[in-house]
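hi!! sorry for the late reply, been swamped w classes. u asked for the two structures so here they r. pasted raw, havent cleaned anything up. first the sequence of the first protein and right below it the tokens
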Amino acid sequence: MLHQDGEAGQTSVTALGGPPQPATSLRWHMALGLAALAAVQSTVALVQAEQTASSNSRRDGSPVDDDVLVTAQPYRCAAASMPSVSMSSSRASAAPRTVAFQWGPDFADSVCNSLCGGLPPAHLEEAPSSKAEGDGTEGSTRPLHAAEIAALALVTGMSLMGCAYSVKLLCRKKCKCRLCTGHYQLVKRLGSGGYGEVYSVVVPSGEGREQLFAAKKIPVSNVTEADSFSSEAKELVRLHHRHIVSYVDDFIHIEHTLWGVKVYFFIVMEYCSNGDVKQQVEANFAQLTEATVLAWFQQLCQAVQYLHSQNVIHRDIKSQNVFLTENGDVRLGDFGLCKHDKIRKRDRGGGGGKLRKTLRKPLAFYRRAAAVAATATSSSSDSVQVGTDCYMSPEMLCSAECGKPGDVWSLGCVLFEMCSGKFMWELDSNIGIDMVMDKSSPSKVYSMLMSYMSPHVSPATRSLIKKILDPDPRTRPTIADILRKKVVKRSSRSASSVRFGSSRHDERGLERLENGTMSSAEGKPELKIPGLKSDKEAGEEENHRERSSSYIARGYAACESPCDGHAFSRLRCDSEMGEPHSDIIEATFTDLYQISMAYAYWKSGKEKEHAVFDVYFRKCPFGGEFTVCAGIDEVVRYVNTFRFTQLHIDYLQSQMPEADPEFFQYLLTLDASNLTIHAVREGDFVFPREPVLRVAGPLIVCQLMETAILNLVNFPCLVATQAARFRIAAGDDAQLLEFGARRAQGPDGALTASRYAYVGGFDGTSNVKAGHVFGIPIAGTHAHAFVNSFHSLEDLDEDTRISPDPESLTAKVNTHEFEQACISAREELCEAIGFQVNCCNDGELAAFIRYAQAFPTNFLALVDTYETILSGVPNYLSVALGLWRFAQIQAVGIRLDSGDLAYLSMRAREVFSTAADAFANEGFQFIAGSRIVASNDINEAVLLSLHDQPHSIDSFGIGTNLVTCQAQPALGMVYKLVELNGQPRMKLSQDFEKQGVPSRKAVYRLYGQDDMAILDIMQGEEEPVPQPNTKVFCRHLFDEQKRCYVTPRKVEPLLICVWKDGKAVHLTSSPRTKENDRPDIHSAKAALQRVEEDLQKGPSQAD
């Protein structure tokens, strides 16, 4: 406001307020300049009016009265609520006239109209007359005072400045950063710090889905200074880790205001919706559990370990800089104070040179330095410290250079806060200085810290905090040491799940603890604690873990929780191909040396080299001349789901702390989409040295799969081969049943044996799970325990459960009449065949009757519980006769599980024939053909001996010797590199048979005129394919004397593509030997016997 006071003879200049946010609207800038021009117009009008009045007064001869002021009639804005610029002149005897101008929404238009000579706007009113009441003088004139001339010059200068600024605004260069161009939009202010403010920003999406990020806004004096603040952005660009805030973007933003140009440096980062750990601890400490805290701490340690592996020291680790995502994962942020540790020499202190010498000084040095530091801190504000002092380690506070142990100390402070609910700045003093002031201070500080801890924190966690907060950096544990601690490795498995509770929260706050939510203040929305489960959810998860051992084996107890009722659901390259049938088969199912080699390959830059591996065996199992191929389907399923998860990576990093963290991030990108796999079809015969599988693809991926592939092929081939040999020994007519689940090596061994015994030629299994999963026919009867559970015929006095269908066969036989019919039949039967009734066990008969009532159409009795021929067989025949008489149902047969199987089977058959003849008039002749099943520790030798002697066994139940492959527990498959980048590779050995066969190979089976296989020929893949009816020269691979010409009638390739470009091809999900379009095990029997007895040939190789 410009105010002219005539009495004082001075003009005062007063600035009132300012336009709201003038830099954000060009309209306000124009209004400023126009206001200045309007002020000039009004001033000029005022001066002209005074000069006119003065000249008129002089013409009239009237004297000039200095107490009277005559002015023109300028206009005054009526909107008095806005800031104003006014000019007034007054005397003691006259009221001053004021020219006032207001800034408002329509002021620019008003001034334009006024300057252009238009009528005054409606909101402008005429200024009141300056004529003093009671004064008869019309006016007076006087010359301008010096102050008035100065005021006029000042206003003129302001108007020129306004015009110049308006021109400057019109001609300025508009900021073209990503914020001004609309790429980002500010949402709200999240908080502020020492260097700037943090906002949430969104990236608009045309599809209505907006991406939310966090943006740090740092003010800088100019564009050049922004380079000094870009170090944080540069670090974020370079650092890639799951538990480090992800970098998105950075740019410079310029704002033009009335007061000058402002420059800001923006860093756009990942947005963590659950805030920082400080907020969680402050608002929800009572809900936290030790398991949750340790899970967060483990992730934070992994982030710091990655930083240290990149020779980066954070230097400002605190709870405010540890953020939590929506899923409860930890993100370490705020790298504005980080620095590079350029010292490469390994040292527990984290560095070398000057730093290493400093860290190796005795504790007395730190005590003296701490005293100096404490004095300097209290007496001077000029000392500069990097970081937050209450989180700084003693060596940092004592002015020594910061090393990696300093970050470890800060981690201990954060862990203490999470376990106590008390923040470091709330303590009475700085513990870093207290601990080194005198020898007794550390113990006092530890006692003080432990007193704040929640009573639910375990002793192991308390001990860990004490070790981390060691004032001596030489004995302070490293990050790798911390991650190896059991309390950290097993965080959520071994830690307490009891909520902390805290005196920091009132009773009402504790009452609100339900379902993992709590309001930090009355009226505020509840905040969800990431990773915290309700008691019901925790109980259900614990029960699920107990029911499924696969979760424990795969580490679910530590980091993940099942939620879909199934063990897990994996990512698959081919969505139409299933997952492995075993939960155990995954990327980490490998030997450590595979991971070690993969790391060495990666360090050597070999990750993109193309390799070819052959899977083969050197000697056929069981002393035979053939092997049945099996396990290919499971290999393809494994390849389909091959992928490392973050769970796997976290574990591997804890076991290989020296490895470069970038290698583990590389592992996360691996899958089998670039592999090509050729294999022999399941059920086909293969011979030594022939590739059963050929795996081609990136060297590291192929190498990592070695252990799993060999495991998935070795045992299946062994079991299928054993089953095939049993089938050959038993003959085509015998029924073979696999009964070995109870004797197998674990559940996976039992399921695998059941499956591949069926591929090898068995007819069924007793394993219900195998039948359910693979569609294998299931078979079985009762055990001895069922017979022993009945003592006498009195056990039949109790009624059986009523059948829901009264017309069914089961309902017919579930009567006392049927029971009496069986008892009566035994007396008639024993008399007819010459047996004594008193030799027959009544309890056994009662058991058979009850079993027949349960399964009337499938009655097969185990007859060797007491005495096979004198008791078991007559009791079986009695129930069979009762079934026939009462319901016209034919019994199935008996099972022998002990004794001389050949003799007992022959003797039982004689009794069956006698009974058939005795009751032939009733149509009981079918009993002579009752099936006899034998299951007494049968192996291949027993089958061959039974083949050479008379017996009447129809079915064999084989268990232990089949599922465990007792004759040869392992096959000895190998996985060898045969080609790298198109160049053959060969393993040399003093043992000639262990030498590899180099290059990529193809295998063909040559058939003769009778459609029987003659031999297999192995040659280079690029060589011409053998043609039917064309003479082919062959020679043995290792025996120069074995060579011949063959003219095949048919040529069949053995290696077919089963996986290519991330898709399974030419493979069914559950193969069955007898259903495939090729010769099965039975039709090849003669050829196999000829191979074993006469030819004794291995694979041949084209010359």
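now the second protein. again sequence first, tokens right under
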Amino acid sequence: MSKFLEALSQRVLLCDGAMGSRIQAIDLDTDKDYWGNENCTEILSLSRPDVILDVHKGYFAAGADLVETNSFGGSPITLGEFGLQDRAHELNKRSAELAREAAECFKGDGRERFVAGSIGPGTKLPSLGHIGYDAIESALQLQCAGLIDGGVDLLLIETCQDPLQIKAAVNGAKLARAAAGKDDRPIMVRVTVETTGPLLVGTDIAAAATVIDALGVSVIGLNCATGPQEMAPHVQWLAENWPGLISLQPNAGLPELVEGKTHYPLTPGELAKWLERFLTEDGINMIGGCCGTTTEHIAALDAMLRNLGGAEARPAPRERKPVWVPGIASLYNPVAYRQENAYLSIGERCNANGSRKFRKFQEDGDWDACIAMGVEQVKEGSHGIDVCTAFVGRDETAEMTEVLTRMRGSVNAPLVIDSTELNVLEAAMKLYGGKPILNSINFEDGEEPAAKRLELARKYGSAVIALTIDEGGMAKAADHKVEVARRLYDFACNKHGLPPQDLIFDPLTFTICTGNDDDRKLGLWTLEAIEKIAQEMPECQILLGLSNISFGLNPVARHVLNSVYLDHAIKRGLTGAILHMSKIMPLHKIPEEEVKTAEDLIFDRRREGYDPLHAFIALFEGRTSQATEKRARAEDVETRLKDRIVDGDRQGLETDLEEALAKHPPLDIINVHLLDGMKVVGELFGAGKMQLPFVLQSAETMKAAVAYLEPFMEKIEGQEKGTVVLATVKGDVHDIGKNLVDIILTNNGYNVVNLGIKQPIENILAAVQEHKAHAVGMSGLLVKSTVVMRDNLERMSKDGIDVPVMLGGAALTRQYVEGDCSKAYASGRVAYARDAFDGLSLMDKIVKGDFDEHLLARKAQNDARPRNRKRELGRAKQPDMRPVDAEETRLRRQELGTGVVIPEPPFWGPRIIARAPVEALVPFLNERMVYQFHWGYRKDGRTLEEYMAWSRKELRPVLKRMLDICKQQDILVPQAAYGYWPANAEGNDVIVFDAEDHDKEVARFKLPRQGREGGLCIADFLRDVASGERDVLGMQVVTVGQHASDVARDWFADNRYQDYLYLHGLGVEMAEALAEYVHKRIRAELGFGHEDAREMDKMLQQGYRGSRYSFGYPACPNLEDQTQLLHLLGAEQIGVTLSDEFQLHPEQSTSAIVLHHPQAKYFSV
């Protein structure tokens, strides 16, 4: 073991911080210092070695045990962007020498110092097709050679974003070590996990670890991209699973634009507290800092380690008991060899030798169809896909390349690379970033071909299928199969170092359906061999090419025999099978007679007058497979159009409309056939059988159909079914609900006059008169809007208006509308619309003259029901208005303040975050709120756990698409203003003092108290003004900008209904995510962010110290108080203002006061 690995296993080591942050703090000249190569930090090792040496010395002086060389971008590929590729060896060697020289300067203090050769990922990723494997491997071999020659103690491959790049880098490093005779130099790999969860190419931490483990790397780590909290779930996974050592170097938080400069928010003390938590909870072996960290951060980490280590200066790593689950991996996810209550199923149909369909696609060069076959097998339940492109007269290497380059990113399951040709296998390995299975090795031509394939497997990190074939041919008898298996194990595992769990035996099965006596027991012998191999070599896997057993039978018989044989093989110890997953049936679904006859055939239970083969064949004579197909297109165009609306299917829509125009007038097509489809959509939605986004997809199809037909129609006044005026009421900026009503009514033949948001009653009434509207629809989200609606109805009564009115919105209830609102409207012609289809139903009643009858029926139902009159909607429950007992509240606060230290903020007054990165907010996004409450996907009987598992699979791709669009089009502009003010409590008031003059009152928030003995008030969680001690109050306001609302409205106008819904919901929740993000920053700056719950789900459920209270909620109901808050924060700098009704504008904004007290939690008044 190297000295470094020995030290790392015995004590926690401290690595340095960022090189770039230190360099950027120095005033360097582009021409003089960088030799004209701006941003090429590596050139400084030659041009300004004094600067690099000082950086290394600074980190060693701060307490670091090792430093990284100034060679992060030192590969010939990256240096080639500056024309420096020919100096790569020189630059890397010199960078290593400088780091070594710095280490030698500290030699006399008795501590070991190490130098890590830093190897970055470059700018080109092979899995994305930017560069080939060989180019990376040879370039990094040269870089590593320079680092080794310069005297590094280890090779650090860091900031990895692509598993295929990791393979090339590790193999390049191994080649350089071997050439230099330095095989003792350890290799460490650190990956970079994005804020969204996986590596940049989509690989999750478990898949990355599976690949790295297969390459024989014993130290894994995380660095860059995020701060420690975002890394927490991945650190926990490594701690619980990774069998080797763990390294961790986070950024100093996520970068933000603050006052025009990039700022990393995590202080040295806060970083130290987070990493101390990882050390004590997770058993990390090495820590340090990445982007944004400085010597101060490293000094804080050193002090923390000394405190934990006591006299030893460094603590021993906490003992872990990881549970490593062996398996394979796609580019994205791992798959365990041993499936719980199942077997590893490998899809067999992407094989040119076994599938005529695949071979035809391959011959035609229809690569998309080839890939679709792989995707389909994964959907059917296959855990992996066997890929073989070999057949006579074709270029197998070229065609394997065509398939692999497409399949590696499109098929979310590991691949089995199946070829008899060594060059094909290697070409495929160089394309695949996951951990595949090599298919296969055997001893038919002796040991040399098997040895070459095992070398490939070890180099590229793959499992291996080993066939029980020796120089004498295929082993048929059970004992012969086991004998060959023993030899294969010794050769692969003992001689070539393949881990036993990566050796997959295929004991071969042959058809038992020929009728020849010699073949009758072949299936039984294979079962016996499986059992013996499983007993003797339990760590290894056992797999069969299942379909061979039934060769020669008709398809239906084959499916039954394969299913029965598989069941017996699993009971004997089989762990996997190559098969057609959808054709395997559970035994309880196969008729008992068929199972029994199949078993008689497998176990050769012939007797006089009974041959199980003949009996089995007879059972299936004349039977054919029942193919399941998608719903066929209707023959008549009328039904096809109706189905298109229901399915939201626009592909080929115009062709069907052209055909329909030859038979029907365009208006009939709309009013009869297309509206029939929308009626079905409404019925399905009402029955809970269609989710809202698919309703909008149907509406988009309807809109497209109407747009196509309009040029063929003569515009006739009043051809719409009726006219309705829709508006969001005065003071309310929320329009999603109203716009959904617009979509449904418009696409069901109504003329909708949509006035927009914040509409006073005068505008609504003017539109009713101008358009001769049959009805009015008023919408609002806020509780206050319910009062506005009632006031509007009173005004309409005074003006003698009796037009039917529909009211809808989240804050309304049917009881309030049919009670208070009905009384406020003299005609009583007002109804509650729960959703858009309720609105459609009401409009149908209005135009048909059934509305008043409907209201009478509702009134009769209500009169027969008892009513709760204790609370009125639209009027907050009155808080406790008893006189404040100053002495009582003072004593309460004194008690609450005992033991709570007032934190010291890093600054007083406001600060602006001019732009927070969207990616940084994604971890704080409440996905359930997005999917269920904004996008309208119902649980449909699922438990919450089942719903979230389903949504991660089905809806997260939609979320990613929307986030990508937002990023590409710069739709979301996250900005914030936040800060700290001295504060105290007086009675039920919170007093805010000036940021500079702490005795000058600048604001006062009057807050309610719970109406019970000992009732709570927010003011209780601040020091009393009589204490003479100033407390600290945080304030924040955040927004994702007006542009998000503008784009959503543009999409609505462009009939992009589904995307409109998605964007609106995403914008609302991204504003909430930004509020969580800023609140987290406040906790970090106040010194207790490390106390947050590590799991983001728990953190979002108030798993942190203190609370954030937004005005308008029960504990602080006065929206008017936002005026003071926004003034103090200077909110106009980020474009946030208040409406006349004290609503924040832009719509997707939110504000809050922030209390640090540990007992401050949400409560209702």
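hope this helps!! also noticed smth abt the second:
The two ends are 65 Å apart (CA to CA).
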